[in-house]
Amino acid sequence: MRMNADTNECSLGADSQYVELAVEVFSMLADGTRVRIILALRDGEMAVGALADVVGKSPAAVSQHLAKMRLARMVSTRQDGTRVLYRLENEHARQLVADAIFQAEHALGGEPAHHRLPGKGGEGHAS
């Protein structure tokens, strides 16, 4: 599919104008803590302290990762009184991480776990 300014279609061709931006997305996700943050946020909003507990890092370290992810528009925030809650900006980062984990399962050989989970939020895809 080619990008057409009149139709706003996404371009998936090798000559896509979005290739370099896609590389930046992959670069942003090339960090285990950020991947864990995305996994933690896939079911909804969380505060920094709760995220820190889930990913096993200090709140300060998680805050630094979240700041970068916010600049990359992967996460957004909402004020709840004095707390700041983080959530995924859209489903694409979640899907990229899920697909990367599924690819990692394939690298181990045998039947990947996600092939044995039909109907679990799209995770039992066929390939």
Automatic annotation (TrEMBL):
Domain HTH arsR-type, first and last residues per copy: 14-108
SUPFAM superfamilies linked to this entry: Winged helix' DNA-binding domain
Phylogenetic placement of the source organism: Bacteria, Bacillati, Actinomycetota, Actinomycetes, Micrococcales
Annotated Pfam families: HTH_5 (PF01022)
Keywords: DNA-binding, Transcription, Transcription regulation
UniProt cross-references to PROSITE patterns, sorted A to Z: HTH_ARSR_2
Designated name of the protein: DNA-binding transcriptional regulator, ArsR family
InterPro entries from the UniProt entry: ArsR-like_HTH, HTH_ArsR_DNA-bd_dom, Metal_resp_trans_reg, WH-like_DNA-bd_sf, WH_DNA-bd_sf
Species assigned in the record: Pseudarthrobacter equi
Keyword Transcription regulation: yes
Entry GO MF terms: DNA binding; DNA-binding transcription factor activity
